[in-house]
Design goal:
Layout (H helix, E strand, L loop, with lengths): L17 E4 L4 E6 L2 E8 L4 E4 L5 H11 L7 E5 L5 H4 L2 H6 L4 E5 H21 L19 E3 L2 E6 L2 E6 L11 E4 L4 E5 L18 H10 L4 E4 L25
Parallel strand pairs: 4-5, 5-6, 6-7, 11-12
Antiparallel strand pairs: 1-2, 2-3, 3-4, 8-9, 9-10, 10-11
The chain binds zinc ion.
Amino acid sequence: MSTKTFASHADLEEKQVSFVQLSEHAWAYTAEGDPNTGIIIGDDAVMVIDTQATPVMAQDVIRRIRTVTDKPIKYVLMSHYHAVRVLGASAYMAEGGEQIIASQDTYDLIVQRGEQDKASEIGRFPRLFQNVESVPPGLTWPTMTFTGKMTVWLGKLEVQLLQLGRGHTKGDTVAWLPQEKVLFSGDLVEFDATPYAGDAYFQDWPQTLRNIAALKPEKLVPGRGAALSTPPLMLTWPTNSPMSSIM
Ligand SMILES: [Zn+2]
């Protein structure tokens, strides 16, 4: 990894995709600093965390999932509302997806800013939206919302969807596998990349990272960058503040 760049201004090269298994049920689809997708393969169904930016890009995630399981991809979790995370959702629904889950705060952000964010992200970062013509008109709407905490059982596998505080947006949601201590953080945590901060809550973000650290994750799939799988994980706040070392 070389010098840090603002994620969305990162270089123009095609990124190398990695699809790695982190635990019995957790996988990470990462792309050298471009937006990641998390995958949880439960006993009877699959959950995808963040969709990729377009349906065509999501097809590559589905293709890789199909190399390891034929279980139905029933659930899509939106860690937050940004277009680059959610506009691939229709690909999973076309494959039999049943629910798109988000926090109520994320739903509210879609209402308030979804159209504006979609136009702005596609306009500013066209490289991140491959085959943008495959994105259907309109926005990606959750079919199920929650506040604070929701548990989804994939057979015997417990998947906790948690709002641990505001940070990257007011709707940030993480997915947590308590049995395997794997965390999918969305853009609350980045590895070797800097997140977009136009919707951020800087006062709240360090405490939210503390709340993530308190779970003691052993493996973590960040919003961007490689999956982290070597405990103890370090979550750092990129300033000189007293809170710069969280864990
Ligand atoms: Zn984001």
